[in-house]
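User: Just a sanity check before I run the rest of the batch. Below are the structure tokens for the first item. I only need the designed sequence back.
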């Protein structure tokens, strides 16, 4: 546990015993955020592991997260270059880029051009239309509905329309975009030897998963090529309207603009599309499903949220975004679901850009850093009854999910924190508020609350493992 640096001996943080060669890889288990949460109870909120040959720091308390991100944010703002992320993101996705000039410029363009309040607002009609379609399909089904499927297809359609200008009814070689994206998500959560044993790069080439990765890359690339070509053609025919630009229109406009500090390539445009699809669809859908599941398990919270919405809406046909700020209890419900079920429980891996000392421990340069958002939000020193779903706790608390309060970090923190929060939340809240306003929800006949399985699925986004099937009965307005 001792490292030599500049002559002085400094300790790395404590951690479990390593095995030869694999280090602590065997400690990760099926759901790494769970295994790491258990381990950190023994070894503390600053824990050091070796995953394969990669030194890895795990941060598991609000206090440690604060110490690190208040005082050393730039040092902890690197991202490791992982195999699937690098390939599928063209080495150009903002989320996976190393800390540096390219990341800074692209993130700035993304925030000012794609995720600005004005732009988000301009897509309200798209969100509303898709929610209406969802409400209609639910109303038409007399059987229980697969809400997991419905919400995922809704977020896919919204993101598709905003990014590409059309709904998800297309793809390549008979695969729809959502099918291809499902494979992308699996690849990003998959195990690639080279990510843990960089020296065995040559061996990785023989792994079956490499073929799957290449296949998914080629399909997605064909798709992006097609999309870019359609947009270029549209521009040349002069049919692009500035008012209704989609993400690809905007990026092509920035690409043509000689005053931009960096010249954007087509691959970089594709990288940003990967960012938006990967970061923006599953996470939002997972938040909706965890919230509905918790409400089914907590009938009092369900009743209170529905009563509030009905009282505020006073018989309006549906909830619109202007109504959301008045739904205080409802907003606390969503916050509480994000606390207990952060859709990216280990955020997106970070990497230290240089060596640094935290609370007397030496953290070497190029250490991989996992921030356990799930442990942090269940830290008993910050939260009373941390395992219980209690939306009331937020009613008179300033704690929010925006990255300013270290007690919960579902969108991450600091300069690498999620830039899509204000894009995601209006959609998540609009969908949920309308589901609650328009329908009475219950488990399919014969099932009780104890039958609702809350287990988590494996993957980079923490979905509920079993789909949520619910019976919806329309309320008469
Ligand atoms: C409920 C929905 C969402 C959740 C819970 C979520 C969560 C996160 C988290 C935890 C991170 C890592 C932050 C860190 O390392 O500190 C992240 C990064 C990111 N998210 Fe989101 N996100 C959501 C929606 C979106 C949407 C809709 C977009 C874009 C349209 C988006 C774009 C990004 C990007 C580009 C990054 C990488 C930022 C960087 O590395 O500089 N996210 N998100």
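Assistant: Here's the designed sequence for the first item:
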């Amino acid at each position: 546990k001792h490292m030599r640096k500049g002559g002085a001996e400094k300790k790395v943080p404590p951690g479990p015993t390593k095995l030869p060669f694999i280090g602590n890889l065997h400690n990760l288990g099926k759901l790494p955020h769970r295994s790491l949460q258990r381990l950190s109870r023994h070894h503390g909120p600053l824990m050091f592991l070796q995953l394969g040959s990669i030194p890895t720091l795990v941060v598991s308390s609000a206090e440690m997260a604060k110490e690190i991100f208040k005082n050393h944010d730039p040092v902890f703002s690197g991202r490791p270059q992982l195999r699937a992320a690098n390939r599928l993101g063209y080495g150009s996705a903002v989320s996976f880029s190393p800390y540096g000039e390219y990341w800074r410029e692209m993130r700035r363009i993304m925030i000012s051009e794609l995720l600005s309040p004005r732009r988000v607002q301009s897509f309200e009609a798209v969100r509303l239309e898709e929610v209406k379609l969802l409400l209609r399909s639910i109303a038409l089904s007399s059987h229980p509905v697969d809400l997991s499927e419905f919400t995922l297809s809704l977020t896919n359609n919204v993101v598709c329309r905003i990014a590409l200008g059309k709904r998800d009814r297309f793809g390549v070689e008979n695969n729809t975009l959502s099918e291809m994206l499902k494979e992308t998500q699996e690849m990003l959560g998959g195990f690639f030897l080279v990510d843990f044993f960089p020296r065995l790069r040559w061996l990785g080439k023989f792994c079956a998963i490499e073929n799957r990765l290449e296949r998914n890359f080629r399909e997605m690339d064909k798709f992006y090529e097609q999309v870019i070509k359609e947009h270029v053609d549209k521009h040349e025919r002069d049919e692009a309207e500035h008012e209704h630009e989609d993400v690809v229109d905007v990026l092509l406009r920035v690409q043509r603009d000689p005053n931009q500090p960096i010249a954007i390539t087509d691959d970089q445009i594709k990288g940003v599309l990967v960012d938006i699809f990967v970061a923006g669809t599953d996470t939002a859908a997972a938040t909706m499903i965890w919230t509905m599941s918790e409400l089914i398990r907590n009938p009092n919270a369900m009743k209170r949220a529905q009563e509030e919405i009905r009282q505020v809406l006073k018989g309006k046909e549906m909830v619109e975004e202007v109504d959301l700020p008045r739904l205080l209890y409802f907003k606390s419900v969503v916050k509480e679901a994000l606390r207990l079920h952060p859709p990216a429980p280990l955020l997106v891996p970070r990497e230290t850009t240089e060596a640094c000392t935290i609370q007397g421990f030496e953290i070497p340069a190029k250490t991989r850093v996992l921030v356990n958002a799930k442990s942090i939000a269940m830290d008993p020193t910050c939260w009373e009854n941390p395992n219980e779903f209690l939306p009331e706790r937020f009613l008179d608390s300033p704690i929010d999910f925006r990255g300013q309060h270290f007690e919960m970090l579902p969108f991450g923190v600091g300069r690498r924190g999620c830039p899509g929060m204000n894009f995601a939340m209006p959609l998540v809240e609009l969908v949920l508020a309308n589901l609650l306003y328009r329908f009475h929800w219950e488990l399919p006949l014969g099932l009780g609350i104890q039958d609702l399985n809350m287990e988590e699925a494996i993957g980079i986004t923490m979905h509920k493992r079993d789909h949520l099937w619910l019976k919806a009965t329309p309320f008469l307005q």
